[in-house]
Amino acid sequence: MAEIIEFGKKAQDLKGLRDQGLRQRKIEALKKVFQCSRCLLKCAKCGSQLEMSAAERSQFATPYPLCRNCQDEYREYRERTAGKRTNPDCYWYNEKWMRVWESWLEHQSCLDEYRQSKEFLQLLEEVEELLKKQP
Fold this sequence. Notes:
With 135 residues, the chain is mainly α. The chain has one domain. Helices cover 69% and strands 0% of the residues. The chain is built from 5 helices and no strands. Helix 1 (2-37) crosses helix 5. The two termini are 35 Å apart.
């Protein structure tokens, strides 16, 4: 009989470990999305530390926090896609460079859509509940 009780305890311990592993994976998934891809202290494109004042940042409307260099590049990209500019400021702002910006913006858009998905919002709620239960 003691062996049956011991087996039951081991099974419960394993379930607890699996549950703890799942909880940890959920928390890590959220940390990755928010800390890595939505940090307001670093440039969303190149990852450098943002050193601009709030006034400087609000001077140019961009959908993501960008450093001065990436902001200048973004402005040029937008002007060229809108047809307002045909000659680039820098010769290396070629068609491949335009594709890099296009694909980066598409990637950011997909991340935004993912963060608004039903499943991601459910994950967010579950992790909030888990964090409330932790001592």
